[in-house]
Design goal:
One of its GO terms (cellular component) is cytosol. The structure is a single chain. The protein has helices at 5-19, 35-44, 85-88, 90-99, 158-163, 165-171, 173-195, 236-244, 282-301, 324-332, 342-351, 362-374, 427-440, 453-460, 473-481; strands spanning 51-64, 67-73, 78-84, 105-114, 120-131, 141-145, 148-152, 199-200, 206-207, 219-222, 227-231, 249-257, 269-278, 305-308, 311-314, 320-323, 382-388, 397-398, 401-412, 415-422, 466-472. With 501 residues, the protein is α+β, with helices and mostly antiparallel strands. The chain folds into 3 domains: 5-131, OB fold (Dihydrolipoamide Acetyltransferase, E2P), CATH 2.40.50.140; 141-171, no CATH class; 173-319 and 380-496, Bira Bifunctional Protein, Domain 2 (BirA Bifunctional Protein, domain 2, 2-Layer Sandwich), CATH 3.30.930.10. Strands 8, 12, 13, 16, 17, 18, 19, 20 and 21 form a 9-stranded mixed beta sheet that branches. Strands 1-2-3-5-4 form a 5-stranded mixed β-barrel.
Amino acid sequence: MELNNLEKVRLDKALRMRQNGRDPYPTRTAVSNNISEAISAFTADETVEHVFTLGGRIRATRPMGKIIFAHIEDGFGRIQLFFRVNTLGEEAMKQFLDEFDLGDFIQATGKLFRTKTGEITLEVTDFKMLAKAITPLPAAKDEVVDGEIVRHATLSDPEARYRQRYADLAVNSDVRKVFQVRAGVVRAIRQFLDDRGFLEVETPILQPIYGGAAAKPFVTHHNQLKQDLFLRISFELYLKRLLVGMLDRVYEIGRDFRNEGVSFKHNPEFTQLEFYWAYADYLKVMELTEQMVAFTCDKVLGTRKVTFNGQELDFNPPWKRVELRQGLIDACGIDIAAFPTETGLEEAMKAKGIKVKPGMPRGKLIDQLIGDYLEINFIQPTFLYDYPRDISPLAKNKPGDPSTVERFEGFVGGMELCNAFTELNEPMEQEARFLEMGREYGADDEERHPMDEDYLQAMSYGMPPCGGFGMGIDRLTMLLADKRTIREVILFPHLRSRDEE
């Protein structure tokens, strides 16, 4: 690691500390409480003496002759430290000024008191270095604009923040709050499903046959088995195998991987919730979805009305419901039922002035219409339901309508949030669907759904009627944390290599 001049100065301080018998990176600490706990104990009863040993990162120092004020911060709070020569002596005061810099981790022991301004402060009786920061953290910068001082946030460049998330978290407390929201979302969903008898399970990430979604997988290779494997694009087919095995309500929260484009709402790896519910259908799953998201809002934010992208979203059930065929008729004047072939639908779209990529399957054409005319306009929570069979090979037909399946997608804030089916449980029909998809899409098409013989074998033992559901944890976090890009809610998002920029 090549050091700049400032980093060399800090490294020299660490080396001198070691030469003088003081370890800049000690193995043990004597920290007794986090800062929030100490402040809570003090405010609960200020009539008794409260002595604590606290640890944290130095955020600010203010030397004032024979006294020094400093602020430290840990993952739970911030507090002021008070050093004075009468307590510590000249040598200790000089040691602090010579050896400690902003960003260093310090351990400080003392009693808590309130200053004349009312600030809770630790009067330091002893201190030591816990970790010397060689590289200074980014600092806020002030600029005079039109005669007024404008403060620019620390580490505000998005590219730098995503590449150095550790520094981003260290200096931007609002970023830490985003990931506290994310953790709260996962915790609330688990509680909701656990309380309703769902069993959390784990299914393979490395799969010999990928499936459960229309996406291009990542491919890897197992050397000893001499076998190509795929990083999963969905949990679906494994979770439904468990229904065959009499686990009637199952869910998984974990990573999926899709080797496709990136955008403000797509990352190559993302966190997904999927659940499967025996003896339920897509209507019951709709109701459960509304309840689950509302419960999550209650637990994480304490309200079901959320501001996202400058608009108030209301997650109170019931959500709006729009039938897909009618929705497209209303939005763009095209009745997809009147055009059962890709050629007919393509011509109808062209007649409306819609640009179409030649040779697209009918399912992809319908997806294009949904994205261009419906999804972007669904701001309030909305269920779009009853999809064409062309784009839903794992969903059950709507009774009396073989061209339509019982599927819904939930949209919020102009983007897809979730997807659900009344699941197909007839093995011969499922095999026919797989074969149909194989004919519709070319062998090199990333949307092609491969045949899974073992899944068909599982279904042949009998799979109960069931409803299935999938939702992106990242997207729900975006909505609840008011972030317009998925990179803001993933700790380490995938970025282009620096060499490509």
